[in-house]
Design goal:
By secondary structure, the protein is α/β, with parallel strands linked by helices. About 45% of the residues lie in helices and about 15% in strands. It folds into 2 domains: about 5-15 and about 85-215, HAD superfamily/HAD-like (Rossmann fold, 3-Layer(aba) Sandwich); about 15-80. The protein has helices spanning about 15-30, 40-45, 50-55, 65-75, 80, 90-95, 110-120, 140-155, 170-175, 190-195, 210-215; strands at about 5, 15, 85, 100-105, 130-135, 160-165, 180-185, 200-205. Strand 6, helix 9 (about 170-175) and strand 7 form a beta-alpha-beta unit.
């Protein structure tokens, strides 16, 4: 396999904002509460506003204990996964990168069956060399990705070209592994929060990845 490149799914490759918002809004509306607009909800998520505070903003804090299990139950069902959209240029970038790198998806999706179905339907599965996934909910979350990579690749993981993601989970995992960390601003964290995690590079979206890889990428 060529030099490895570790990629997160939600954010860098997929726009999941509509899915996240629809699950949230449906749960609130079914309980008779108003919900934030997609714009306001996603802004809150990017700022890492706690779920309880998001609910409180429309007077729905009383749903907190039931909201999280309902969200987990729905978020990876066909109804809501259908709302996911490929980020602009994602497939073209992967086609370009796979000529030089072994592309490894590293994600915290819970259902492997639903994950593989979505990857196939969106044309992603055929472009990836390996998919690592885990539904663990332990903390810190970066350790889950770190351990998946280390268990599969051992010490050779440190020679990977980069780890790419839209949250501190990906950046901290990369730093712990000694991998070049690239943060992507098309996902669920604001630039301020992502910068605090200390990525080696920040890019606006997946189309900026070849340039961000610098000398690591030689078409």
């Amino acid at each position: 396999m060529n030099q490895l490149l570790f990629l997160d799914l939600d954010g860098p490759l997929l726009d999941v904002s509509a899915k996240y918002h629809r699950v949230y809004a449906d749960i609130l509306e079914e309980a008779g509460h108003n919900s934030l607009s997609l714009k306001d909800y996603w802004r809150a998520k990017q700022a890492k506003v706690p779920e309880l505070e998001i609910l409180r903003r429309t007077g729905a804090e009383g749903l907190f204990d039931t909201y999280r299990p309902l969200r987990k139950e729905r978020i990876e069902t066909d109804r809501y996964l259908a709302l996911d959209r490929l980020q602009p240029g994602a497939l073209a970038v992967l086609d370009m990168l796979r000529e030089r790198f072994g592309l490894v998806l590293v994600t915290l999706r819970s259902s492997r069956v639903q994950l593989e179905k979505e990857l196939a339907g969106l044309g992603l599965q055929e472009r990836l060399d390996l998919v690592l996934s885990s539904g663990l909910e332990t903390t810190p979350r970066w350790r889950i990705k770190h351990d998946m990579i280390l268990e599969r690749f051992g010490s050779s993981a440190a020679s990977a070209a980069a780890q790419v993601g839209d949250t501190e989970t990906d950046i901290l995992a990369a730093k712990a592994l000694g991998i070049f960390a690239i943060g992507v601003l098309s996902g669920i964290r604001s630039e301020t929060i992502l910068r605090e995690a200390g990525p080696d590079r920040l890019i606006d979206g997946i189309t900026g990845l070849p340039e961000a890889l610098g000398d690591r990428f030689k078409p």
